[in-house]
Design goal:
Elements: H1 3-40, H2 46-59, H3 67-80, H4 86-107
């Protein structure tokens, strides 16, 4: 195998690894914000909160980025009459993305 092929393979492996980590971090972030939202929505039973958090993770698969998650949360808050400003959700997404990144890196 030539040096060029080795470098190409290494680059592809790093790209795949980075994409995997990014996916795991986003999924963890969505779970964490889902649990936060469940509490805001008055979901107190742990298994129901976990199920809601899973719905949030699944909602994130609709499109690239976290706008789909924000839409879900805003819609769910609106349906339940829970007042949560959009900027609070934005702040929580940043906070929980950092927390998720830390958790995933510690697990790796």
């Amino acid at each position: 195998m030539s040096d060029l092929e080795s470098r190409k393979d290494a680059f592809e492996a790093k790209f795949a690894h980075d994409a995997d980590i990014k996916f795991k971090v986003e999924a963890r972030c969505c779970k964490i914000i889902g649990l936060w939202a469940a509490e805001k929505l008055g979901i107190v039973r742990e298994e129901e909160a976990e199920a809601y958090a899973k719905e949030v993770v699944i909602a994130n698969l609709e499109e690239i980025g976290l706008d789909d998650v924000k839409r879900k949360l805003m819609g769910d808050f609106g349906q339940k009459g829970v007042e949560v400003p959009e900027n609070e959700i934005d702040e929580k997404l940043v906070e929980y993305m950092d927390e998720a990144k830390t958790q995933i890196m510690q697990e790796s």
